[in-house]
Every structure is written in structure tokens, then in C-alpha cells.
Design goal:
The structure holds 2 protein chains of 2 kinds.
Chain A lengths: L1 H6 L2 H8 L5 H33 L1 H6 L14 E3 H26 L24 H6 L5 H22 L15 H25 L24 E2 H5 L4 H30 L1 H6 L2 H27 L1 E3 L9
Parallel strand pairs in A: 2-3
Helix pairs in contact in A: 7-12, 10-12
Chain B lengths: L8 H22 L7 H6 L8 H9 L10 E3 L11 H20 L9 H10 L4 H28 L8 H23 L4 H15 L11 H6 L10 H6 L6 H32 L12 H10 L1
Helix pairs in contact in B: 4-6, 5-6, 6-7, 7-8, 7-11
The chains are: A mainly alpha, B mainly alpha.
Chain lengths: 316, 299
């Protein structure tokens, strides 16, 4: 234990955390948990009210249906001037003061002039794209850099059209939207934010994995041999390999579809009944892809399996 | 003669009121109430006394404020519901526009000048370093507030009917925000920006069919074409096969002209649709599952 503590490179950790361009992601790592707690606390308050009203239909007829203070004599509406404008004015002052202090305290980074002959190690995209850069470890660039970002955008845009649940429109709730909220949070917190955090703080020179406290040694040797799934199974000949990979990839995706299908039918019969066939298929597809990404990550990190599907033209 | 210290209160009162009357007369004549001058009234048409009518008119008759409704749900100003992240994002965009325009006065998007301009800003321009810092940190903050805004909109189910389309506009704005930040990254022309953009645009090499290292280029060859590093999608992004002078110019034009116009256009739609779709979604009264069943039966 003492040995481990002695080996813990505080200086390295501090250096990464206080890198000027990393300050925003450190800030975000504080803000996201705070707002998650804040949102879920509101959701809990609404859920308690929902439970109370469901148990007491007479109360539900007369209740104002918000967990906030209420008096029948109060006006239902307020004037924007001054009640909203003063809040906005205050917010603008706080944001300005915060930014001025930040700008006085910390200088924007400026490295040496651009030099194509001197590669930065590690060379990293800005922190908000590091989730995608981290995906490059697990997928070829055409998937990580082109297909997946488009799937993310398309999936986000599809949300309002596939979420047919009429409940929870305009108020925080967990009880009424467990599936939607857990799906979104998995995508946002795990597949986007967590991967960006790994890309920022864990990936060092050569994009190698360094635990917090490990020294970023650019000369570190890693004796890992990437394997592919067909090598593990022992398939040979490129035609066989390509066919095997195709079956394996489609099989895994199909199994994930099936898993999502069974879970939705069993656990969320209301959701299942509300969606039409097209909406349901899009939901299953997006879920299968969202599960395929972490599965692929686990295959690589846990078993050093790089590709599931190898062909002469592309790899998955 | 000793000073008189016992003034008759009645005469003092009369004296004071006479004084006040004279003063008011003079003020009216020489210094009219500013808020009643034709000049002020030509700018703000409504009166200034605090009445519900004037409170509404203050918002409705002002081009900047009429973005908002004259009245709003009394619970909508609760911080617990709307964290203000959308508004702060817009405010940061305004800060970025102002600081960005100021920075443009000192910046040439050329390989010979760009890096030196940043050094000049840092070391010689009065408040130049502060200006650059402010622009940089506001840009990073805008990314965070955009994400948090989306999280809030999701958690409150505010993308549900009738706001589906506005959610999509929001997704586009999220993308534009990140692209704005990314294109700005290259402009100092330093190692950080250069390698970040090299890494970022290298992914475009692998675009299926349209990138020279992507899968499916054989399909193009079958049709008699050929995708190379000099005609693929990455070439279009960079204006060349490497990150060089043309890439700097392209990043500059995307960053300072094209993307802000695009973003501002979508922002107009975003804000307009907020109003058209019924303003802020809540806090709405909770709906019970049983009632949703009834609603479904009617449909």
C-alpha cells in the first residue's frame, strides 16, 4: 500500500487536471453531477405527488398538481417585466463576472507555432470530441469518425418521434419515464461524457491507457497483441473469415435486438403497445447500436479482441 | 443682533412651500422631466408609471424583449425547473460575437501572420490577452451549457408534442456550437490547433465511398472514377491534402462567417418556435397514467 502511494504520481495527475484546456472538462465533471442530482431531486418530488394523486382520485380532481407552494388567490401568471427579466439580468451579470475572473486568472493555451514535422504526443482533439477519438481505439475511423457521429445525431433527432409516451411532458419525473431517461442517460453519460473523460485523463502518449497517478511515459512499451474474433475461433481463408465475421456481427446485433425486444415486451408493455412498427424498429436498432459500442469496448479492453468482422474491404 | 432661533412654524411651512413651487416651476420650464420629452417618447412609446398595461407594453413594444411573452407561468421562473442553460448559451453566443469581432481586427488568416497576430494580441494589444482568454473560455463554457440545456430539456420531456421539431433544431444548434468551437481551434495556428484539426479531419479520410481510405471506394472505381487524397471529402474540408494555408482560411471563414450565420438562423427558428409551441414547457401539472389511457382512447 505504501509502495502504491509512493508510486502515485500526484504531479502528473495535477498537471493533467490543470492543463488550461482541461479546466472546462473538470468544471463539467462538477456541473453534470450537480445538475443530475438537482433534476432527480425534482423528479422525486413529482413522483411522490403522482403516487399521492394516484392513490386518492378525489384529491387528483382538486389538486393543483405541482409540488410547489400554491394558493388559489395567487395569480397564475407573472409579468415578464420585471419578474423574468430580473432573473435574466442577474444571470447575465453572474456569467459575465465568472468569465471575467476566469479570463483574468487563466490564459488561453498557446503552443509552439504549427509544425507538421513535429507530431504532438499525444495529439488530441479538443476535449468535447475526445469521446469520438477514444472510439477510434475500438472501431475503424469510418465507423468511429463518420458513421457513429451521424447515428448519434440521427438518433437524437429521432427521439421525439419514437418516444410515444404521453406522460412526463413538461415536468421532471422518473416513475413515468424510466425507459426514456435511462436510455438517454446511458448514451449521454456513458457513451459520450465518460468516453470523453477517458480520452482526456486516461489516455496518454501513444494513446496508451494510464490510470490516474501513473506517469505519462512516452517510452512505455505495451506488449499487447490484438486478436480478431476469427483467430480466437480458428477460422482461416479470407472468404471464410469474411463470412464468419458477417454472421458473427449480424448475430451479435440480432441478439442485442432480441434482448431489447424481450426486455421491452416483458418489462414495458405500455411502451410496447404505444409504438407503431416503424417506431419500434427504430428504437430497437438504436438500442442495439448503443449496446454494441460498449460490448466492442469490453471485447477490446478485456480480451484484446480488435475486430469482429474482417474483410479485404472493411473491418468492424 | 443675535440670530433668531424661534421661527414661527407656520411661516416656515409657507416659506418652504413657496420655495418648492418656485423650484418646480423653474424645473418644468428649464429642465423638463426627461421621460416626458418628445425624444424619450419617440424611443419608448409607452408611459413609465408602473401599471400592468405598461409592464406588458415594456415587453411587447421592444424588439429585443418581445422575444418573450408579456406574461408567463408563475412557476416558470423557478430555478429548479429551467436551469437557465439555454438563455446562458445564447448570452455566451453574444459575448463570443462581441469578443470575436474585436479579435478579427487583429487577425490575418494567413500562415505568415496568424501565429504572430496571436503573440501580438497576447503581448502588445491593450486588453488583447484578456479578449482572447474571454473568447476561449466563453466558447468552452458554451459547449457545457449546450449539453446541460439538452439534458434539462430531455429530463423534463420538453421535446414531446408540440415541441418535437424544436428539439431537432436544438440538435442542429448543438452540432453548430461544437463545429464553431472546433473551427476556432485551428486559428491560432499553433501545435495544439494544428494537431487537433489534423486528428479531427483525418477521420474524413475514412468516409465510406467519399474518403480515399474509406470502405467502398472500389464502388467508385467500378463506375470509372477514382477517389484520391486530392479529390475526397477531406480535401473539400481542408482545401488541400494537408492542414495548411487553405485549411486556415477555410476554418476562418467557417468560424467567422458561415457558421455564425447558420447558427443565428437556426437560433431565430429555435426562439420563434419556443413561442409558437406554447413557450416554456412547464413546470406543467403532472399527468396520471390513467388519464393518459383516456387520452389514448379518444384518439
Amino acid at each position: 500500500m505504501t509502495h502504491m502511494l509512493a508510486a502515485f504520481d500526484w504531479h502528473q495527475l495535477l498537471h493533467i487536471l490543470t492543463e488550461p484546456d482541461n479546466i472546462p472538462i473538470v468544471l463539467m465533471m462538477l456541473l453534470i453531477p450537480y445538475f443530475l442530482w438537482y433534476g432527480f431531486r425534482e423528479a422525486a418530488a413529482h413522483d411522490r405527488l403522482i403516487a399521492q394523486l394516484e392513490a386518492d382520485p378525489a384529491l387528483a380532481k382538486t389538486h393543483h398538481r405541482k409540488p410547489y407552494p400554491y394558493h388559489p388567490a395567487w395569480d397564475k401568471t407573472l409579468h415578464t417585466w420585471p419578474y423574468l427579466l430580473r432573473v435574466e439580468f442577474l444571470a447575465a451579470i453572474i456569467v459575465t463576472a465568472f468569465l471575467v475572473l476566469w479570463a483574468v486568472w487563466l490564459d488561453a493555451p498557446l503552443e509552439e507555432p504549427a509544425n507538421p514535422n513535429l507530431t504532438m504526443n499525444p495529439s488530441k482533439a479538443p476535449w468535447y470530441f475526445l469521446g469520438l477519438q477514444e472510439l477510434l481505439v475500438y472501431f475503424d475511423p469510418w465507423i468511429a469518425g463518420v458513421i457513429l457521429p451521424h447515428v448519434v445525431l440521427g438518433g437524437l433527432m429521432a427521439i421525439p418521434y419514437i418516444d410515444t409516451n404521453p406522460l412526463g411532458n413538461g415536468y421532471y419525473t422518473w416513475r413515468q419515464r424510466k425507459f426514456a431517461i435511462s436510455g438517454y442517460m446511458f448514451g449521454f453519460l456513458v457513451l459520450w461524457v465518460l468516453l470523453a473523460i477517458i480520452g482526456t485523463f486516461i489516455r496518454g502518449p501513444g494513446w496508451m491507457w494510464f490510470w490516474p497517478g501513473e506517469t505519462w511515459d512516452p517510452h512505455r512499451q505495451v506488449h499487447e497483441v490484438n486478436r480478431h474474433l476469427h483467430e480466437v475461433v480458428g477460422v482461416t481463408g479470407w472468404v471464410n473469415i469474411a463470412l464468419f465475421g458477417g454472421v458473427a456481427t449480424l448475430g451479435i446485433l440480432g441478439a442485442l435486438h432480441l434482448l431489447a425486444d424481450v426486455v421491452i415486451r416483458r418489462k414495458m408493455p405500455v411502451l410496447f403497445r404505444q409504438q407503431n412498427f416503424l417506431q419500434y424498429m427504430i428504437t430497437l436498432n438504436l438500442l442495439a447500436m448503443m449496446l454494441f459500442v460498449p460490448l466492442k469496448i469490453l471485447l477490446k479492453l478485456g480480451l484484446n479482441i480488435k475486430y469482429v468482422w474482417v474483410t479485404p474491404w472493411f473491418n468492424v | 443682533m443675535a440670530p433668531k432661533d424661534d421661527i414661527d412654524p407656520a411661516s416656515l411651512k409657507a416659506l418652504l412651500s413657496k420655495e418648492k413651487e418656485t423650484r418646480e416651476k423653474l424645473t418644468k420650464k428649464w429642465i423638463p422631466n426627461f421621460f416626458e420629452t418628445p425624444f424619450w417618447r419617440s424611443i419608448f412609446r409607452h408611459k413609465i408609471d408602473d401599471t400592468p398595461r405598461n409592464r406588458s407594453l415594456a415587453v411587447l413594444s421592444n424588439v429585443f424583449l418581445h422575444l418573450q411573452p408579456a406574461k408567463l407561468n408563475r412557476d416558470a421562473v423557478r430555478y429548479a425547473f429551467c436551469w437557465g442553460m439555454g438563455g446562458i448559451t445564447f448570452y455566451l453566443f453574444i459575448i463570443l460575437t462581441f469578443t470575436g469581432v474585436a479579435l478579427m481586427f487583429y487577425y490575418h488568416p494567413t500562415k505568415a501572420d496568424a501565429f504572430r497576430d496571436i503573440l501580438f494580441l497576447k503581448n502588445d494589444v491593450p486588453f488583447g490577452n484578456f479578449l482572447r482568454n474571454m473568447h476561449r473560455w466563453a466558447a468552452h463554457a458554451m459547449i457545457i451549457t449546450t449539453w446541460l440545456h439538452q439534458m434539462r430539456v430531455f429530463m423534463t420531456g420538453s421535446y414531446k408534442p408540440p415541441r418535437e421539431f424544436n428539439w431537432n433544431i436544438g440538435v442542429i444548434l448543438l452540432l453548430v456550437t461544437m463545429l464553431l468551437s472546433f473551427t476556432g481551434y485551428l486559428l491560432p495556428d499553433d501545435q495544439l490547433g494544428f494537431w487537433a484539426v489534423t486528428v479531427g479531419t483525418n477521420m474524413a479520410r475514412a468516409t465510406p465511398v467519399l474518403g480515399h481510405e474509406g470502405p467502398g471506394i472500389e464502388l467508385v472505381e467500378l463506375l470509372g472514377g477514382k477517389i484520391t487524397a486530392y479529390n475526397d471529402v477531406r480535401f473539400a474540408l481542408l482545401g488541400g491534402s494537408i492542414v495548411d494555408a487553405n485549411a486556415l482560411l477555410r476554418a476562418y471563414i467557417w468560424h467567422c462567417v458561415a457558421l455564425p450565420i447558420l447558427g443565428a438562423t437556426f437560433m431565430i427558428v429555435h426562439f420563434w418556435r419556443i413561442r409558437k409551441d406554447g413557450s416554456l414547457s412547464g413546470p406543467a401539472p403532472v399527468m396520471l397514467a390513467a388519464e393518459a389511457g383516456q387520452a389514448k382512447g379518444r384518439r
